[in-house]
Amino acid sequence: MDLNLNGLNVLITGGTKGIGRHTAEIFAAEGANVAICARESSGVTKTIEVLKSYGGIAIGRGFDVANKHALQSWVRDSASALGGVDIVVANVSALAVSDDEADWEFGFNVDLMHSVRLVNAALPFLEKSKAAAITMISSVSGREIDFTGPAYGAFKAALVHYAQSQAVKLAPKGIRANTVSPGNTYFEGGIWESIEQNNSQMFTEALSLIPMGRMARPEEIA
To answer: When you count CB atoms within 10 A of the terminal residue's CB, does the N or C end of the chain come out lower?
Structure first.
């Protein structure tokens, strides 16, 4: 399938694992140039080598997306290296599921503010694009009450509202903004693998609530 992505420049946060990694590979396979970031530099380096095998430009950097200045610098440097920005995907989550002030602050800075800062930093470049698009990874937890804590759900809901407001605001400039709200997604090194290994009761209960009898795979969401 040709998704008309050939030659476009894409920025993806959290691009070394799970949904972010598979999203990056799909873009690369479709001929897009991809810039990724993640907390661990070693994972970024390994992922870049895979993305380069598709033939396009692939670059990345290891840093904490909660660091405003580091995130802004990555966006600017990536735009310079790629020759612009057409698409941004805000994928990183703190997975803050406890109901204490530390997790509220953690989720605010990572899930919500990293997305806001990514959009703000990329906007001058998106405004010059003829195929500008913003995608934020939210969650079903943003619209239903589940096992996660209130902080996680609240910020995922906030992302939906923020993306919708940006869609309305930026539509006259030809910039689209959307969210994707996955359900439970299982992958190696992910939260559900950890829960399966360390809290089998919760894993079994979560699985029993899914009519298909299995969790989503990251490539399906990507």
So the answer is: N
